[in-house]
Amino acid sequence: MDKLRLIMDCDCTMGVPGCDVDDSLALLYVLDCPEAELLGVTCSFGNNTQDTVYRNTKRQGMGQGGYTRALGRGQPQRAAQRGGGVHECSGKGTGRR
Residue 67 in contact with residue 97, Cβ under 8 Å? Predict the structure, then answer.
C-alpha cells in the first residue's frame, strides 16, 4: 500500500499560554501514522507569531524527522472572513461553526 504523502501547514502552539493544541496534535498524529509520509512542514502564523510557532515546533521535537521544515507566510494572503466563531482574537476556538 502506498503511503499518503503530505506537506502540512500548521501553527503548532501546544504549550504556549492562551493558544490551542489542534495543529500540534494533528502533526503528532501524522508523525506516528504508518499510512502517511510527511514530506514537509510549513510553520505559519495563526494563534501566535510566525517566529513563536516555528520555535515551538522545534522545541517540541516535531522538527526532528526526516522532512523539510520552513517558515510559512507571515500574514494572510487575503482578509479572513468573519463570523465563523472558530478562532477569536485570543486564538482559542469555540468549536462552533
Answer: no
